Amino acid sequence: MGFRPYPESKRVHGRLPIEVSLSREYSFRCRPYHGFAGDIEVTNPDIQKYLFDLHGYLVIDDVLTADEVTELNRLIDESGHTSTEEVSGTLPGGGAGEEGAGFLEWGQAFTKVLDHPKVMPVLRMVMGDGFRIDHFWGAWANAEAKALHMHGGVVPFVQTDYYYVRDGRIRSGLTNMAWNLTDSGGELGGFMALPGSHKSNFQVPDEIREATEGYGIDVPEVKAGSVSIFTEALLHGTAPWRGSHQRRTLFFSMGPSHQAYSWHQAVPPTNVKLTERQRLLFSRPSAPHSFGRPTLFEPELESGS
Question: Which is nearest to 150 in space by CA: 194, 109, 181?
Fold first, then answer.
């Protein structure tokens, strides 16, 4: 195991990313806002857990192929829900006040991301065997889209947005996965976070909440086809978009299986066939391992039946 310096072109606001290989298929990255950097091959899941616990988020590279990204963007283009005339907008989603299944009705290109085999092990590490889709939506932004200030965090306490560790296991409340359909981050803008803020003991000062750089804020570079996973307990937001291309992201807020953020639940699509495990992700809230509720990781469910 060795280290190599990161080139200047890979620095994000002067900070160096750490890249961590989860398996032979893909890697995840937790980018700190300080410290030494390099490529580290990891076979020990304890290191994966340690880095997520330390920073509150990670990026999984190369989850989707270039062809899969192209197909998703083609379907979004055909939907008519984006514009070059407006600065930013959303794609129809579900749950938390939205009716229907939103973009999931647009075909299996979208539903296949619900329980992608490269993402489920990471969600399991963060949320355990039982979690569900609480709500989801899509977002797009053109050049000069304004910032979305920092939100989330653990102070003041919000019942759904918690983070703690007990018995050697991470216990995260609402946890988000963002499917990046275009390159973003760094000088382009996009997702930003304050690493470690998910374990803060003090309310964030207004000056930091309204900032988009400095104070340790990170705007990690992400490539099209990658997935960013972060606990809602982490202070996060969106830096102003400076890219010449349209930023596109699909967001899924996952909740522990016994918890619901809103009484208005997400529903599965009506015209796209789902696997049994995908259907289970839309189940009504109930405690995991209780009253016959199967876990998401039963062998027959993982096989995609």
Answer: 194
Cα distance between residue 260 and residue 284, in whole Å: 9
Query: Comparing C-alpha atoms, which of 138, 143, 144 is closest to residue 245?
Result: 143
Instruction: Say whether pLDDT at 130 is over 50.
Output: yes
CA atoms within 13 A on the CB side of 170: 30
In this structure, of 78-87, 163-172, 281-290, 293-302, the range with the lowest mean pLDDT score is 293-302
Q: How confident is the model at residue 97 (pLDDT cuts 50, 70, 90)?
A: confident
Instruction: Name all domains of the chain by residue range, CATH numbers in brackets.
Output: 66-302 (2.60.120.620)
Q: Is 118:63 a contact under the CB 8 Å cutoff?
A: yes
Cα dihedral value 254, 260, 262, 266, nearest 10:
50
- Say how far apart CA 29 and CA 57 lie, in whole Å: 9
Distance from C-alpha of 234 to C-alpha of 215, rounded to nearest angstrom: 15
Alpha-carbon distance of 140 to 100, in angstroms, equals: 20
The residue with tokens 């998401």 is: 296
Q: Read off the pLDDT of residues 48-64 as tens digits, 9 standing for 90 and up.
A: 788 899 999 999 999 99
